[in-house]
Amino acid sequence: MTGPADNGEGTALANTSTGDNAATGVGVGIFNIQGKYIPLNSVINATTNVNSGSAIIGMAMVKLKGQTVTVGNVQSNLTVEVAHL
Questions:
Q1: Rounded distance between C-alpha atoms, residue 66 and residue 8, angstroms
Q2: Cα(15)–Cα(37) distance, rounded to whole angstroms?
């Protein structure tokens, strides 16, 4: 999974929304089904049989360390590459 890193610690997806209506001080965190944080630009070895099940990835807004949050629009992107061997 890859995407633009935040400008804080680089551990969340960056808010790529721009302009006067863009939120600041927040990013998009990526989490597994148990709610554990998944590092950005990491490889996940999934053992889930997605033919008969599902692979769930959660996302949530996260406050960036040392930054002030302002209300506004949030936009980002995440690329997920799936290799079936």
A1: 8
A2: 18
CATH superfamily placement of domain 1-85: Fimbrial-type adhesion domain (2.60.40.1090)
- Give the contacts of 61 (CB within 8 A, at least 6 positions apart): 26, 27, 28, 29, 74
d(CA 62, CA 48): 27
Q: Which residues contact 60 (CB under 8 A, 6 or more apart)?
A: 28, 29, 31
**Residue 16 φ then ψ, to 5°:** -95, 5
Residue 23's identity, in one-letter code, is: A
What is the pTM (predicted TM-score) of this model? 0.82
- Looking at residue 53, its amino acid is G
Q: Cα–Cα distance between 20 and 47 in angstroms, integer?
A: 43
| Per-residue model confidence as pLDDT tens digits over 3-39 | 999 988 888 999 999 999 999 999 999 998 888 988 8
Q: Which amino acid is at 38?
A: I
